[in-house]
Amino acid sequence: MIQITSPAAIRNIMQSHGISCRKSLGQNFLVDNNIINKIIASAELAKSDLVVEIGPGLGALTAQIASAAGKVIAVEVDRGLLAVLSEVLEGVQNLEVILDDALKIDFDRLVGESTGGEYGRSGKKYKLMANLPYYITSPVLMHLLLGRFNISIILIMIQAEVAERLAAPPGSKTYGSLSLAVQYFTVPEILFRVPRTVFYPKPGVDSAVVRLTVRSEPAVVVRDENMFFNIVRSAFGQRRKTLLNSLAGSGLGIDREACLRALENAGIDPGRRGETLSMAEFASLTDSILEVSG
Question: Is 0.85 topped by the overall pTM?
Fold first, then answer.
């Protein structure tokens, strides 16, 4: 294996392969061993673990995951990095690198086929780790959560501002539909911040490492999950609007009078705004709207 935890090492290996960092893919490579070690410790890896890594990049974190886990499946979307990964991770026996788009993968099928069914939908749980650029964080998270893959924890490094949104409580400025979706499926913990200075090239913002422990059951019980998320999105569609105005003009298929009845039946003041509602209140409102709409 080749050590690439310095800007000079990254520049050298990329130049030798005739490639450069791609802004369109949000490529910023971690160059600090201390941060890498903290990430590995946070994942609490054992030799019995299978880890899926989204976006191995140049392989600095991948190498350490492979040292601690039983098997690693790394999913990379940039074909130009495959030759670099092959060189950097030469000799790593418990690693499989897949060229694919994480947004299109059935991860249970991937790990099931790779392990003969030992892990995956009908097998054991596995862990997922990723360094996600800002532009793709929400789509990847929603794909992982709505796919209900057999994952035990998701350990991600993301923009610090987005990390705060994932763990935000009701009433806070960063609380929104993404907060509710993540907290519905997982228990989020912001573990530590990562300064922008430990990346090459240096991004414009700091990052944070977040651990999402996947719940065995959603945080609340709702009669219609699709309706629940539609109501959440409608409530946050225009944050300055009251709940009554947001829901009545949202295309949910119920008129203003029905919305008013549903809110009153759920014991929720129609003059409140979406960001003040807890998840339990959104669940109660969902059931109430379903009852009113028949």
Answer: yes
